Structures are given as C-alpha cells and as structure tokens.
Amino acid sequence: MTSIELKNNVEKALEEIRPFLQSDGGDISLISIDNDNSVKVKLEGACVGCSVNQMTLKSGVEMTIKKYAPQIQEVINVGP
User: Fold this and answer.
1) How does DSSP assign 55-70, residue by residue?
2) Which of 24, 55, 67, 75 has the most other CB atoms within 10 Å of its CB?
3) Distance between CA atoms of 80 and 63, rounded to whole angstroms?
4) Which residues pair with 75 in a beta bridge?
5) pLDDT score of 56
C-alpha cells in the first residue's frame, strides 16, 4: 500500500467513526501518519474533556483504522 493509499484508507476510517463522535459533540482530525505505521489524530470538541476518550481512541478509532489499514500499529491523540 502506497503512502497515498494509506492516507486515503485512514481518512475513510475517520469518516466512518466521525458521525459517532459528532453525535456526542466531538470530532477527530488526522494530524499525521508516521513511518506508515503510526497515526496521530486530534480529538476535538466534547471529546477533549471526555473521561472515556482513551477508551474511545483505542476501542473505536484505532480498531476502525486498523480495519482499513492493518499495518497501523498505534493511534495517538496529540490533543490537549
């Protein structure tokens, strides 16, 4: 998978999860993909102060991204 295909697949994954985050007043943005195996995202809105955002990040976002791009090993939130 090329870097462009990888980015497109990660964006598709974020589009799939975004409606769930938005329904709770949050959102997510792709910041970068490093070494073709690490994704940096920024949780936004209500997700920033949410007490379960790490669980959302691991069980929701990371799982969805890995479905579209299996070579991704980790998803990191770079937000505040």
Assistant:
1) HIIIIIIIHHHHHH-T
2) 75
3) 22
4) 39
5) 78
Instruction: Read off the amino acid at residue 67.
Output: K
As a whole number of angstroms, the distance between CA 59 and CA 53 comes to: 10
Residue pLDDT tens, the chain, 80 long: 899 999 999 999 999 999 988 998 999 999 999 999 999 999 998 888 887 877 777 788 999 999 999 999 999 999 76
Strands 38-45 and 74-77, by their bridges, are parallel
The pLDDT score that the predictor gives to residue 1 is 81
Got the DSSP string for 12-72?
Answer: HHHHHHHHHHHHTTEEEEEEEEETTTEEEEEEEEHHHH-TTHHHIIIIIIIHHHHHH-TT-
HSE, CB side, 13 Å, CA atoms: give it for residue 79. 20
Token code pair at residue 55 = 């669980």
